[in-house]
Amino acid sequence: MKNSETLPLITRKAPVKYYHNENVSRFERRRREKSKKEYYSRLDHLNELYEKDEKLMEGVTQPEENEKRTDRILANLSIALNLTLLFTNLLASILSGSLSIVSTFVDSLMDVTSGLIIGICLKLIKNTNMFNYPRGRARLELVGVIICSILMGIANTLLVVESIRSILSGNINPEMDIPTLSIMLGAAAVKIILCLVCYRRGSSSSIVLAMDMRNDIATTIVAIVCATIGDRYWPYADPLGAILVCGVIATSWYGHALEHVPHLVGKRAEGENLSRILKIVIEHDPRIK
């Protein structure tokens, strides 16, 4: 019998499995290629963060005033649009009596409320008395996010209960006439335009605004479709659409809250952030070997 040292590695009973390419299945090759792409993608992202940190340490990455002004303008436009949509969705809800349209009004109301709560929290953080709060009040923003998530969950749960009650009682009378449809489509069109502008802008704050508007656009389109079907073809489509919209919104905010709870209770930073800090600590002085 041949010595085990002269046998191919594939026939050994080694703890580490190794297979030649011709013996690897197609699915395994695709999995490896996907893992390799993800690895190099994370590596490229980390290198970009390293370069950004180096420029920041050199004092050359402070945003220009024009860039800050553009982001502020987009943020103010988003706030003004949310306030406008609050009243237009309220008007559309009254005209149509549709639960799907009411769900978009609840979404707009909670967007305005959450923005107000977060703004108050940020103002309190900025005006912190360091004598009374030696560590600052940075976590107050996380508390604000959790409060918004709870309020959003309660509001959408109440609307889901009302939708189920309408289904059981059969009291469903949505009316999607031309004025209501025009109001909803016009609001969605304006939000689509502003969303595209934010995506084209490409800054971190504008991307966050664009993602929020993208979700609002999706829920608005679903509400319009379900309300129209409920008015013209199948009445139960309207409360079912309201349940779908509320479920998506509540799930999104629930996941958002779960992401922030670990930071509130003191979870350590992510691996890439620890790596960035370690690199700065090691390389900030040439005397460190």
TrEMBL record:
GO terms for molecular function: monoatomic cation transmembrane transporter activity. GO terms for cellular component: membrane. Keywords: Membrane, Transmembrane, Transmembrane helix, Transport. It is a multi-pass membrane protein. Coiled coil: none annotated. It is found in: Membrane. The chain crosses the membrane at residues 73-95, 101-122, 142-161, 181-199. This is Cation efflux protein transmembrane domain-containing protein. It comes from Caenorhabditis nigoni. The lineage of its organism: Eukaryota, Metazoa, Ecdysozoa, Nematoda, Chromadorea.
